[in-house]
């Protein structure tokens, strides 16, 4: 039976018990001492793959720890689970679906059959459809209703139909093709809509309605508002098709909206939203950076796929990252993980990872429907460095929580400016070093004495200056933020998330938890507008509705 079918109780595995005992033995583990006693620790706990250097030596691990974690992966039948994922088995058991985002980056010529149908030709048919559109837009062949070329593309979408494309098109800004600017409209918020459309000309704007379901409230409301905006500013209804296209698996709904069938880019139900930037959902990326660079992005992800499916578990970058997360989450009580990109172009990476990780692993029920009895997905947070050093790094260094951090930094900047990049890189490394090394009481006192303070002040201040240290972090160094490396980096985290779910026995590819809020929202809306007189089922919601109705104007 495949992993997603069998009663899967990871806490009953021998390796889990061994890790619980090992955790006790590691109570006094000191990273400082580990480095002092082993000059090869960096080499021993580093991996170089797909243009990425992963230094995981600043972790609370010994060789024995790593071996026990790998034993856990093996006893969880991880290799078989990875095969199930890539072969298109129904790893999304609750929806009876495969999760084949990896097929989207498979080179032409490979075969991958799902229900007897080879998927690769249809993947490449859509890639060709994207290539043709990008070519027509970039060459100016695609004209608006006043016969002007398109200068601005607005992606209307939310969640996976927004965060991945935004991350990549912003991260690869240095690769932007002249003449086409990409914008993102996601929230159901008139201010966001107004701020964006105020700087657009309907004659030269193309809207991409990106929605796998073509049923997401925010996206549909924004698409209707965009259509009204276009019409109100003089756009002819019978030329709407020159300014609206769609990416969806629900073509009938798109056609009903008024989009021509030939301007619909298909999606498949075996691609989850948060894993979909490699599909036609990535159209804004391709329009921003060109189809050649988009294919480089796919190639980078494919290289990581090859590494993930072929490398032994102990040399496998996604597996190592996943196992470290399990070590801290399930054996050290860590409840969150910080993602700290030290690069302006990667500033949206954490936002994308929040959906990728938290919507995939924010689960408390296994694939077989049984409740878990251990922690699963962590809270993912963070942001660009050095900014975070002046915002939340205090908590990382002297707070009461163990918060593992992933630092992500390029060795090369696209914008050399004096010694800025050297200082950025130095700060990234020194933050990781400070988390590991800390400053003990004796060092704090010495420092204060050397500053000439009285002994009374030394004793008064020293407790505040102590930095506990021994706090874990990973360092991911990219050669530079380019399509190939970025594709590998994103795929790395996709596979890390999957490995954790496979070991926990949970489903990384459904998201039933978001349904209730959507359903309740309809009743609240009807009460806000007075359409529904029956009071809400609780006094808080009703009190807030009353407050809104008293104060809302417009
Ligand atoms: O948040 C729920 C969700 O379904 C996400 O998984 C998805 O990325 C987003 O909403 C948008 O869905 P769609 O692409 O169907 O509009």
First and last CA, distance? 59 Å
Gross morphology? globular
Tally of separate helices: 21
Tell me the Rg in angstroms.
26 Å
Overall mean confidence score, pLDDT: 97
Question: Which spans have pLDDT < 50 for at least 5 consecutive residues?
Answer: none
* Biggest sheet character: 6 strands, mixed
Strand order of the largest sheet: 1-2-13-12-10-11
The percent of residues in helical segments reads 40-55%
Number of beta-strand segments: 13
Bound molecules: 6-O-phosphono-beta-D-fructofuranose
Task: Estimate the strand proportion.
Answer: 5-15%
Strand-pairing-aware structural class: alpha/beta
Describe the structure.
46% of the residues lie in helices and 10% in strands. It has 554 residues and is an alpha/beta fold. The chain has a six-stranded mixed sheet, with helices on both faces. It has a five-stranded parallel sheet with strand order 6-5-7-8-9, sandwiched between helices. It has a two-stranded antiparallel ribbon with strand order 3-4. α7 links the parallel β5 and β6 (181-185). It is globular and about 80 Å long. The structure holds 6-O-phosphono-beta-D-fructofuranose.
Q: Would you kindly provide a brief summary of this structure?
A:
It is built from 21 helices and 13 strands.
Helices and strands in order:
Layout: H1 14-25, H2 31-37, H3 41-44, E1 46-49, E2 52-55, H4 63-75, H5 78-87, E3 113-114, E4 117-118, H6 119-138, E5 152-156, H7 163-171, E6 181-185, H8 190-197, E7 205-210, H9 217-232, E8 244-248, H10 251-257, E9 264-266, H11 283-289, H12 291-310, H13 317-331, E10 336-341, H14 349-361, E11 379-382, H15 393-398, E12 405-410, H16 420-437, H17 441-450, H18 455-465, E13 473-478, H19 483-504, H20 515-528, H21 539-551
Helix pairs in contact: 1-4, 4-13, 7-11, 7-14, 11-12, 12-19, 13-19, 14-19, 17-18
């Amino acid at each position: 039976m495949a992993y997603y079918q069998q009663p899967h109780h990871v806490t009953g595995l021998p390796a889990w018990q061994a890790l619980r005992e090992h955790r006790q033995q590691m109570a006094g583990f000191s990273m400082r001492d580990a480095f002092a006693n082993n000059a090869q620790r960096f080499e021993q706990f580093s991996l170089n793959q797909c243009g990425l250097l992963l230094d995981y030596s600043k972790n609370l691990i010994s060789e024995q720890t790593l071996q026990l974690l790998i034993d856990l992966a093996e006893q969880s039948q991880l290799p078989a689970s990875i095969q199930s994922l890539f072969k298109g088995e129904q790893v999304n058991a609750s929806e009876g679906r495969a999760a084949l985002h990896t097929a989207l980056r498979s080179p032409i010529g490979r075969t991958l059959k799902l229900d007897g149908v080879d998927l690769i030709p249809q993947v490449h048919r859509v890639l060709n459809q994207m290539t043709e559109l990008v070519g027509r837009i970039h060459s100016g062949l695609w004209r608006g209703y006043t016969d002007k070329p398109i200068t601005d593309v607005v992606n209307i979408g939310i969640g996976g139909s927004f965060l991945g494309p935004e991350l990549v098109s912003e991260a690869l800004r240095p690769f932007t093709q002249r003449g086409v600017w990409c914008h993102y409209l996601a929230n159901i918020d008139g201010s966001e809509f107004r701020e964006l459309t105020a700087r657009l000309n309907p004659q030269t704007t193309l809207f991409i309605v990106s929605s796998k379901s073509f049923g997401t409230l925010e996206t549909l409301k924004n698409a209707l508002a965009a259509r009204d905006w276009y019409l109100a500013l003089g756009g002819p209804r019978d030329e709407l098709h020159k300014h609206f296209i769609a990416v969806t698996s629900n073509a009938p709904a798109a056609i009903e909206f008024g989009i021509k069938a030939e301007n619909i880019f298909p999606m498949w139900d075996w691609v989850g939203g948060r894993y979909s930037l490699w599909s036609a959902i990535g159209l804004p990326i391709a329009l921003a950076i060109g189809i050649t660079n988009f294919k480089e992005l796919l190639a980078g992800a494919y290289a990581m796929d090859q590494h993930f499916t072929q490398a032994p578990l102990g040399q496998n970058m996604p597996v190592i990252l996943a196992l470290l997360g399990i070590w801290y989450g399930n054996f050290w009580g860590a409840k969150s993980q910080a993602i700290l990109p030290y690069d302006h172009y990667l500033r949206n990476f954490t936002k994308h990872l929040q959906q990728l990780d938290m919507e995939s692993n924010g689960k408390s029920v296994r694939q077989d429907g049984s409740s878990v009895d251990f922690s699963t997905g962590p809270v993912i947070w963070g942001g660009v460095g050095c900014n975070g050093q002046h915002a939340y790094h205090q908590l990382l260094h002297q707070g009461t929580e163990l918060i593992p951090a992933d630092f992500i930094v390029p060795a090369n900047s696209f914008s050399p400016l004096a010694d800025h990049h050297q200082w950025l890189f130095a700060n990234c490394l020194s933050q990781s070093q400070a988390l590991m090394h800390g400053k003990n009481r004796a060092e704090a006192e010495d420092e204060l004495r050397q500053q000439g303070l009285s002994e009374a002040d030394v004793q008064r201040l020293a407790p505040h200056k102590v930095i506990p240290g021994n706090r874990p972090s990973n360092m991911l160094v990219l050669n530079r933020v380019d399509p190939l490396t970025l594709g590998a980096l994103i795929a790395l985290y996709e596979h890390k998330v999957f490995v954790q779910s496979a070991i926990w026995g949970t489903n990384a590819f459904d998201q039933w938890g978001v349904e209730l809020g959507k359903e309740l929202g309809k009743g609240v809306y009807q009460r806000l507008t007075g359409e529904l007189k029956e009071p809400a089922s609780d006094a808080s919601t009703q009190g807030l509705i009353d407050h809104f109705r008293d104060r809302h104007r417009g």
